[in-house]
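Response to reviewer comment R2.3. The reviewers asked that we include at least one raw input/output pair. We reproduce the pair for Redox-sensing transcriptional repressor Rex here without editing.
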Amino acid sequence: MTTPDFPETASGAEGPGREIPPASLARLPIYLRALNAMLADSVERVSSEELAEAAGVKSAMLRKDLSYLGSFGTRGVGYDVQFVSHKISALLGLTQEWRVAIVGAGNLGRALARYSGFTTRGFEVVALFDADQGIVGTQVGWLTVSHVDDLETELKRTGTNMAVLSVPAVVAQELCDRLVAAGVTSILSFAPVVLQVPAHVQVRKVDMGTELQILAYHAQRAQEAEPGSRARSAQ
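Raw output as returned:
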């Protein structure tokens, strides 16, 4: 890949001590998805306005978010799509090899194991676990469900460095502790409970019930803002 001929500036250059605000960090995967779609369509350059529209954000917000990666856009020329895609991928750690174990092979765990989007984004699901003897030994895609008793052995064998917990709250902390003890320091949890982990372990919690409640709040606010809504609610 040829690096574009616009230099990075010291004020915008990324570095180990430069923290990206959580809101900006959360939008980077969205920009990456839009950029990769453009690459698939052989688009070489894109303006901030075009990229912002593809990502569903304001162009000023996009420019501020990308400034945390460095200064590499040129007014009137725009961004080099491949270069910015690579920069975001590198910052998100997607140029490394991520080997994922899914703990919990119920409906959600099995659906996650079959999700082809992981592979295209740099994540390889290498192991799937459950405690149900009726599920252990069955095939999910190319994976065979292993018993959770073999967790540590299989994590070591597969070189797992990231895990997904899709288990009931009552067993989530115990399994999380086992993952951490086995050396896994990046965990995505769908369990409806707050997990306690050491400071060096990163846990991201996905609570679909909470997200639906927030969505319901915004939907209700939108309904209340409609003309005549108060009159209807008073009837």
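The two ends are 66 Å apart (CA to CA). The chain has ten helices and ten strands. Further pairs are available on request from the corresponding author.
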